[in-house]
Amino acid sequence: MKKLTKLTMPSAIEAHFKSRYVNDWKFPEQTYDDLSPLFIRFITRTVGSASGAKALSEYETFYRSLSKRVLGNNYRRKKKYQPLAYAFSDFEGSRGGYVQAEEVPHVHSVMLIHPDHILAAEPMLAAHSMYGHIREFDPQKASFTRLASYCMKGTVGTRGFYASRGDLWDVYPG
């Protein structure tokens, strides 16, 4: 397997989304380009916490609630139908490559929800928009790999700020 880097990871994410859509959900490959994955900027509610791991933990709570909303109480048994999401911790100023430890983190995420579950997810996505921005990806504005690269900027910009990079990003369902 090819080593994932800031240059290859966005393409790997897109390939994973396409695989989920075509192989797991059994939709025709030619309809993949009509999908609109979500771009989520999730703001942590823990003011004063500079932990990327804490921000991801709060995002995971949101993700599990969303999965339960669209699949019911037994959502854990339906792993391949859960939304597919990649989430990355970010900090103010990371675009310029500078991260201050006292900044409150947020999470950038790309998420793919099964087309049959979008209507069930909409009320929760609207309710959680008070924690950040949730919007559909627009392929007319940029490529999916560019969006994924943007989501990763905080993880890439930390340059080893954390002992474990696992504290900075995760894939859901895990």
Protein architecture, described:
The protein is an alpha+beta fold and 174 residues long. It has a single domain, classed as Alpha-Beta Plaits (2-Layer Sandwich), CATH 3.30.70. Helix content is 34%, strand content 17%. The chain is built from five helices and five strands. It has a five-stranded antiparallel beta sheet, sandwiched between helices. α2 runs antiparallel to α3. The radius of gyration is 16 Å and the shape is globular. The mean pLDDT is 81.
Distance N terminus to C terminus? 20 Å
Q: What gyration radius follows from the Cα positions, in whole Å? A: 16 Å
* Main beta sheet: 5 strands, antiparallel
Side by side, the strands of the main sheet go: 4-1-3-2-5
| Oligomeric organization of the protein chains | single chain
Shape: globular
Overall mean pLDDT stands at: 81
CATH architecture annotation name: 2-Layer Sandwich
Give the SSE map.
Blueprint: H1 9-24, E1 38-43, H2 52-71, E2 84-90, E3 106-112, H3 118-128, E4 132-136, H4 144-151, H5 153-157, E5 169-172
Features:
alpha+beta; 34% helix; 17% strand; Alpha-Beta Plaits; 174 residues; globular; 5 helices
Compact description:
With 174 residues, the protein is α+β, with helices and mostly antiparallel strands.
